Amino acid sequence: MLATGHGGIIGLDAWKDPINELKFCLIETIRPDEMKGNIMARYEVITKSDFVAQSWRRYSSFAFAATDAVAPLVVQELAKACMSLPIAFLQQNDAYAPHAVQGLEPGLNLFVVNGTWISPYIPAVYRAYPFALAQGGGDGMHLCVDMDNGLVGAGDEFDQQFFDDTGEAAKPVKDALNFLQQIHNNRAVTQRVCAALAAEDLFQPWPLKVQGPEGERNIDGLFRIDEARLNSLDPDALHRVQKAGGLPVAYCQLLSMSNIQTLGLIQRKLDEVRNRMPEMTDQIDVDGILQRHKSSEPEQTLETVANDDVVNIAADSGDFDLSAFVKPKQND
């Protein structure tokens, strides 16, 4: 049940241990330092005393995610995510966690172009923005909001209240907290599933290479399912993986790997625009490019192929003409 605890901090009854002096916190979502961007948001705990007179507005741009080369996923969303996003596992200490691979270099999310999210699927971690859960004192979890993105303030453009006229959390704020709580709960399930996969030694490095005009470079730190080992598990081991819910996770990751080529396509076309038509960089129809790419793709299979390990970001003779995918600028 949603509750406003001591000091007006929004949290959950079961976790109610708010700290009145707690003002800044770390977002619960963990993104590896080597793959995330350099922009660190400032999250502040939502308290009645500080936010009753403030309002917020929903984001209209995904610029806040533009520097995230990876984004954490939970098992509940993998079936949808794997149809359009490449998925890899990242190792954090001794644990593995599924992530969407969104870029081919640190600090760049290729699925965000001119503030628009261009993939059919948006990771759940972004959909509650500008809100996030944060660890408070003890086991307390509190709702926070990003204060650095211009989405909190006073004025007509900020059309959403944090608290209603009765002093309770407004419904959109409650909805955000409930959604983030679902993600939090599913992350615990995700950890258990990945632990079961690790117990059977089913993770192996994904030796991803990027081929560009200046040569080849490696992307280290990504892991994938060892399909050969998965197929050779004895009945008891296979049953353990199945009982833990690991088979759908394994198949989703394997199915998603061919989506890594989409990143190469986007990178090639964005570079081509910058080089050939720099004045039209903000007019590229990336969605049209992806649709053209999708119509020429073979059917996806679970079989791992060599192309899943190499991404070409250098233009080649097989690429289609970009000019048809630049939107004409509209006159005011």
In whole angstroms, how far apart are the ends? 50 Å
Strand content: 15-25%
Q: Order of strands side by side in the largest beta sheet?
A: 6-8-7-18-15
- What would the average pLDDT be, to the nearest integer? 79
Number of helices: 9
Can you describe what's shown?
With 332 residues, the protein is an alpha+beta fold. The protein has one domain. It is 28% helix and 20% strand. It contains nine helices and 19 strands. The strands form six sheets. The chain has a five-stranded antiparallel beta sheet with strand order 6-8-7-18-15, covered by helices on one side. Strands 3-4-12-11 form a four-stranded antiparallel beta sheet, covered by helices on one side. It has a three-stranded antiparallel beta sheet with strand order 13-5-14, with no helix packed on it. β16 (208-212) and β17 form a beta hairpin. The longest helix has 29 residues, at 171-199.
Question: What is the compact description of this entry?
Answer:
The chain has 332 residues and is of the alpha+beta class. It has one domain (2-325).
Descriptive key words:
disordered N terminus; five-stranded antiparallel β-sheet; 9 helices; flat; alpha+beta; 332 residues; disordered C terminus; 28% helix; 20% strand
